[in-house]
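Journal club prep — side note

Before the paper discussion, L.F. wants everyone to see what a predicted structure for a comparable chain looks like in C-alpha cell form. Sequence:
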Amino acid sequence: MNEISRVQLVVRVTPNARRSEVLDWGSDEKGRPVLMVKLAAPPVDGKANTELVRFLANVLGCPKSQVQLLRGEGSRQKVLEVPADSLSKLPSR
C-alpha cells in the first residue's frame, strides 16, 4: 500500500473576515513558522474550524478528509495534519 506522507501545519486564524484567504507566513512566540489565514466564518459552534478545513483543502488541492485538525479547536492557533506534497501550493516562507 502506498502511504501518503503527512506533515503538521501550524495556522493562526482570524475569523469573521469578508472572505477566506491565506495572508502569509508569520512566526509564533518561539520563532516557528505559522501560516496566517483569514476565515469568512464566525468562531461559533465550530464554524471557523469547518471553514478552515474546507478552505485549506481547496487551497492545497486535496480532499477535505486529508486535512485534519489535531489541536486548537477553541484557539486562534491551530495545528493541522496535511499531505506533505500539497505544501508546495502555499506561499513560500
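L.F.'s comment for the group: The chain has one domain: 6-82. Keep this in mind when we get to the figures.
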